[in-house]
Amino acid sequence: MASENGGLVIKPMDQFQVKALFGGDISWYTPTNVTLWMALTVLAATALMVYGARGRALVPSRAQSAAEMTYGFIYKMVEDVAGRDAVRFFPYIFTLFMFVLFANLLGLIPFAFTTTSHIAVTAVLAFTVFFSVTALGFILHGTKFLKLFWVSSAPLPLRPVLALIEVISYFVRPVSHSIRLAGAMMAGHAVAKVFAGFAAALGAAFFLPILAVTALYALELLVAVIQAYVFTILTCVYLKDALHPAH
Amino acid sequence: MEGDIVQMGAYIGAGLACLGMGGAGIGVGHVAGNYLAGALRNPSAAAGQTAFLFIGIAFAEALGIFSFLVALLLMFAV
User: Fold this and answer.
1) How many domains does chain B have?
2) Quick check: B68 and A179 CB within 8 A?
């Protein structure tokens, strides 16, 4: 990617551009690369679960083991983190995990588009969690839900200050929840692109950046799974607060 | 020479926001290091605490993410 006057021109953010699939202007109904890759994400997640659970064999195949292990892993996490009575929300949390996981992993395919690198996508997921959890808290506990902000174990003079901090941290939740995922995905892909640009610019020593990109790719695989896990576990933590608001 | 002093300030500020990464790094390292220290003392209890490890890392990381947010705002919103 060396430019004409010899300098480096690396455009690591170009890969995040939203483009219309069939050309033309982008409106709310235009099929873009984001819609395409989101549809593929849903297809891939559905395919794994449907194909995996199809045989119901006693000795599971590889697909069935993968499907069963993810299911069991998330089920146990919901039970451990959010409590036994949170299990009725398990389908939603599992759907969230599968969507984020597959969006992250599909984004790692070369030339693919990472839908979760856009704050618009992750913010929708995070704000849905935020609003539904808040509504759930008020539906289950009424105004007693506000006890969440009143730390009764703290000394009385400290409680108003703590309440203020708790309220602020409560409303910041969806922001950090969404930007964590989008930021991790965006940063990882941008770094990979920068190193790929080095490989094009270095000429004979091109193998050094390619080794670095390979190592980064392995790290990104790890990050993709961990970020999906963190997104889901935080959903469970917020859900626990809605189910058991008292401190 | 192009641009103006506001843009220059925004770019410098966006660069300074990177310092927030250092704080997040210290926080995440502290969580992970203490987890490892505890896990080596009592390996049988380690497996049950990995969820708390990740929650702790996520919360420590959130502050670093806010510095990233500040950088983004300076670059694209100011």
Assistant:
1) 1
2) yes
Q: Is residue B66 within 8 angstroms of chain A, CB to CB? A: yes
Q: Do B55 and A175 touch (CB under 8 A)?
A: no
Write the residue in A176, A229, A233 that is nearest to B65 by C-beta.
Answer: A176
Q: What is the pLDDT of residue B6?
A: 86
Q: What is the DSSP string of A60-94?
A: --HHHHHHHHHHHHHHHHIIIII-GGGGGGHHHHH
Confirm whether B59 is domain-assigned.
Answer: yes
A137: containing domain:
29-243
- For residue A18, being part of any structural domain is answered with no
Our count of domains for chain A comes to: 1
By C-alpha distance, which of A110, A94, A122 is closest to A38? A122
Nearest CA-CA distance, residue B52 and chain A, Å: 9
pLDDT 10s digits, A124-146: 999 999 999 999 999 999 888 88
Q: Report yes or no on A3 lying in a domain.
A: no
Contact residues, chain B, for A183 at CB < 8 Å: 65, 68
pTM of the full predicted structure?
0.86
User: How far is Cα B30 from Cα B53, in angstroms, rounded to an integer?
Assistant: 11
Q: How many CB atoms lie within 10 A of CB A128?
A: 14
ipTM of this predicted complex?
0.76
Compute the Cα dihedral for A21, A24, A25, A30 and give only its sign. negative
